[in-house]
Amino acid sequence: MRSLINSILRITQLFLVLIATALLGNVRASTQHAASSATAAINFAIFVCVLSWIAVLYSLLAHFVDAVAIPIVAIALDGFATLFTFIGAVVLSAKLTTVNCANIGTRPTDWIAFGSADTEKRCREIQAGLVFMWFLFGTFTVALVLAFREFRRGGGSVRGPSLASMSQIGV
């Protein structure tokens, strides 16, 4: 049952990081004369997506190939992905603020959605990417808890359960 939950969780993470990367990558690709703080926030969000890709791909590989499964690496990658996804989502939330993209109103000139030919489209893409980053944060949090529980269940060994303990070695 744990294996099924872990598989569903990792495949969900794969789709979430794919969608978030596509949305935020398109925002970055369509940037024209954006404020430096807005560009920095989008660049950080892309960095978070890259880190998430590394964590998800390693976790999927470790799930299907036991030879590369090192529990402490999985915990570290899930921990960093969880932390940076949270930070990235908070940064984008703070830069975007609560907004109706159809009615921009009076926003400062360094607002994150300014910087492309179609401000409303850019705003909606940032909103959608932000939602997927929050969902990704939730899945990484659950994956981190499950990885930590699995690490503790295996006796806390850095190399995993593949090595024999002293009680299993006959003399």
From TrEMBL:
Keyword Cytoplasm assigned: no
Primary location: membrane
Membrane topology, from the record: Multi-pass membrane protein
Domain of life: Eukaryota
GO cellular component: eisosome; plasma membrane
A Gene Ontology BP annotation from the UniProt entry: protein localization to plasma membrane
Keyword annotations from UniProtKB, A to Z: Membrane, Signal, Transmembrane, Transmembrane helix
Signal peptide residue numbers: 1-29
Stored InterPro entries: Marvel, NCE102-like
UniProt domain MARVEL: residue ranges: 5-146
Transmembrane region(s): 39-61, 68-92, 126-148
Residue stretches in coiled coil: none
Keyword Signal: yes
Subcellular location: Membrane
Protein name: MARVEL domain-containing protein
Source organism (scientific name): Xylaria flabelliformis
